[in-house]
């Protein structure tokens, strides 16, 4: 009986290490063009506080990029988000129980995106929303 308990403890410890090492979570996100009504669906792979993502614009342009999320925000976060919503308070206020992040995407025909978002986690899922701006000055809403 004692050997069985020790074996269960070892297995539990190994499983715990695997979970803490950062399993990859696949997630879907949407980018909304509020001027045209176009919706772009992207897929991402999240591992810890970093993610990589891919999506195809309605024009057929393929985009790839990465994101990083910081708990309780950072001093450099909020420029795009506050410009879109017309409030500078987002750039200096922490949001309780949430995380803030930035993303950069480079597309194969020269379009680039910078995004800022607010996210929250529950168990193994992450959800959030944000604002993206392309290199032509157009804004998009992001929901994931």
Roughly how much helix do the residues carry, as a percent range?
Answer: 10-25%
User: Regions with pLDDT < 50 over 5+ consecutive residues?
Assistant: 15-21
Beta-strand share of residues: over 45%
Number of domains: 1
Sketch the major β-sheet.
8 strands, antiparallel, barrel
> How many helices?
2
Mean pLDDT, nearest integer? 78
Number of strands: 8
Separation of the first and last Cα atoms = 47 Å
Shape: globular
- Written as H for each helix and E for each strand, in order along the chain, the element string is HEEEEHEEEE
> How much is the radius of gyration in Å?
19 Å
Major sheet: arrangement of strands: 1-2-3-4-5-6-7-8
Which secondary-structure class do the elements indicate?
alpha+beta
Concise structural overview:
It contains 2 helices and 8 strands. The chain has helices at 2-20, 79-85; strands spanning 25-32, 39-47, 50-56, 62-71, 99-107, 112-122, 125-134, 139-143. The chain is globular, with a radius of gyration of 19 Å.
General description of the model:
By secondary structure, the protein is an alpha+beta fold. 18% of the residues lie in helices and 48% in strands. It has helices at residues 2-20, 79-85, and strands spanning 25-32, 39-47, 50-56, 62-71, 99-107, 112-122, 125-134, 139-143. An 8-stranded antiparallel barrel has the order 1-2-3-4-5-6-7-8. Mean pLDDT is 78; it is low at 15-21.
Q: What is the strand and helix layout of this fold?
A:
Elements: H1 2-20, E1 25-32, E2 39-47, E3 50-56, E4 62-71, H2 79-85, E5 99-107, E6 112-122, E7 125-134, E8 139-143
Antiparallel strand pairs: 1-2, 1-8, 2-3, 3-4, 4-5, 5-6, 6-7, 7-8
